[in-house]
Amino acid sequence: MSFGMFAGLAVLVAPLPAVAHPQLPYRWTNVTVGAGGYAPGIVFSPAERGLAYLRTDMGGAYRWDAAAKRWLPLQDGNVVSSYMGIESIAPDPRDPAVVTMAAGMGANAPAAILRSADRGASWSITPVPFAMGGNEAGRGLGERLAVDPNRTTTLFFGSRHDGLWRSDDAGAHWTKLATFPVAGLGKPAPRQTHGGVAFVLFDPASGTPGRGSRRIWAGIADPGAVHLYRSEDGGARWRAVAGPGPEMLAVKAAIAADGTLYVGYATGIGQSDALDGAVWRFTPDGKGQDVTPPDHREGGVLGVAVAASVPGTVAISTLDRYKLGDTLWLSPDGGAHWDDLGPRSRRDVSASPFLLHEGKGADFGHWITGLAIDPFDAGHVAYTTGATVYATGAAGQARVDWAPWVRGIEQTAIITLTSPTGGAHLVSGFGDLAGFVHDDFAASPQPSFANPYLSNTNTLDYAGRKPSVIVRSGSLYANRPREASLGRSEDGGRSWVPVKLPAMGNPPARADLNGEAAISVSADGGTMLVATPEPLRTRDGGKTWLRVQGLPGSTRATADKVDPARFYAVSDRHVLGSRDGGAHFVPLAGQGLPADLSAARIRNREQQSTLVASPFAAGELWLKLGGQLWRSTDGGASFQPASGTLQVELFGLGKGWGRIPGLYAVGTLDGLRAVWRSDDLGKHWQRINDDGHQWGLRFRVISGDPRVVGRVYLGTDGRGLFYGDPAEEGE
């Protein structure tokens, strides 16, 4: 038998230029939300009680630490963005210290197998040629990665696009199985994906320790006549296994100690096309039986789990059960009878009140693809959703009480944030979760971004001299109605009123309902400007609107944080200014700037502003032009370079140690991409993150705190929201 072999090179990170960078020690802490994003899979270790792993679609992997009673992030030192999307994870079934995972965000992004011998504290990384989709549709399938319990150096991986792969040296080298009947569909078209080999499972009862398992199952989630295969000789030969009709894809599976296989089927791979499904039970010799719950009428079965400690106990969960709501069934007898846990379940979300952010009670959950039963305690069941992880210790009781199992998990995308000069020190704008006022960084925030509720907050602004006034713009999911995409708060973001613009044009239409129009507010809170195609201003809270003169259409305005009469903006050729409360804009001299300012143009609604007004002095402006910062202290009449050799991506201001503001940036200096601070107006920079705090280098927004010296806020794309403070000596 001949296989094409791929000998992966085990690496930690790409070598960096040998340049010494000044390092300023910082202490980094997550601002607590409590999960918040989609975790496609959760698995318990069969080798040690109290050990579990969680994989997320853009925030890396986590390990449950039973002693600390919290989840520990396992990839904060990772620098490869794509590796934060985890396709599959497999704890070693014999050695609790060993864990392996498949990492890769999408079909056109780098992919690797990561191996750890210390529970994920450190990783060896083997880049692989088969693409993954840790953040693509179908990321809840699996598990694709399997470790042979009878010879733990043998691993199989079911790829999305390129068939079935095998390693016999614990994941260091991989060969494609040429005899597997499904070779793969190849790289998909842009914005498309494949389900591929959805899961691989070894039957522990089919082998002996040291010699390997003989029986292996593999499920297929691509269109075709056959969706389940079985090997009886360790993977050398495969035979088709009959199941439900060809429209049903084999998407999820679990195997019991006696070799019985339970397979979840769906008509799609998720997260919006798995509209019907089924559950089948297969004996070790491949004979199948439909054991779908009789009252299952909608949704795919994307969660399947068995209880190792109680034979016959099986759990399944649904996905895309839109009309009836997703739920979980439990069977005590191998699928002969099912009990729907949904109607008798209760959820206590008091520790995660953000889950009420849409103004309704916490439902059973959505995007349920991760489902696991503790192998040491059949009553301990956990499942994942698009926003949290729920767990119960009483799955078999008359009433099932669930609570978020999320301490330590922060898996969200931060679009924007602001640190006002008064009130709460931090107000955030999230993707999917709207946003929050953070009064206590260690506690999950109460939801307040309602009226209007907007799933994404795209921009935030506060009135510099009246910081209780905050305005926001945002956008909704496409399938939800919207009456307003702008809001105003008079109490620091705790309550809101919608800001609505009049219909304009021919035929008349409102230009503020698509989420594209940013809103800004004057230093005294009295004037609001909206960046619609014909920019508008109001002085009476939105009752009446006037057209802004001299400001190009859809151009975001920046309010001076000290002088309420001043606003600023930047066009392709000029820095613009207004001294009459935004009524009229005129070109400013802008001496020192290049003639072409188009690099400062805002190109999408979630982009951070390239023109920032200092909260400490009237007329002090900071402009990002490409990777260069410029500073003006005379209201835009003149500018001076202010970033040295640092190539700046994101920047923000905070309270400094004297009259000079602290300057914070994400950028690249001498080949090192990192988080930086400058205390001398950008002449010199010190790195303030370190090799253990890199978070895939997935950054969205940064800002200092105008009231706390040295404090910085950093919003990531997947690992949540952080605040950093200078570390005390010895930390």
UniProtKB/TrEMBL annotation:
CDD domains: Sialidase_non-viral
SUPFAM superfamilies on file: Oligoxyloglucan reducing end-specific cellobiohydrolase
Presence of the UniProt keyword Hydrolase in the record: yes
A single GO BP: xyloglucan metabolic process
Gene3D superfamilies referenced in this protein's UniProt entry, alphabetically: YVTN repeat-like/Quinoprotein amine dehydrogenase (2.130.10.10)
InterPro entries listed in its UniProt record: WD40/YVTN_repeat-like_dom_sf, Xyloglucanase_GH74
UniProt keyword annotation of Phosphoprotein present: no
GO MF term (any one): hydrolase activity, acting on glycosyl bonds
Alphabetic keyword roster: Carbohydrate metabolism, Glycosidase, Hydrolase, Polysaccharide degradation, Signal
Range of residues in the leader sequence: 1-20
Family: Belongs to the glycosyl hydrolase 74 family.
PANTHER family on file: OLIGOXYLOGLUCAN-REDUCING END-SPECIFIC XYLOGLUCANASE-RELATED, XYLOGLUCANASE (EUROFUNG)
Stated name of the protein: BNR/Asp-box repeat protein
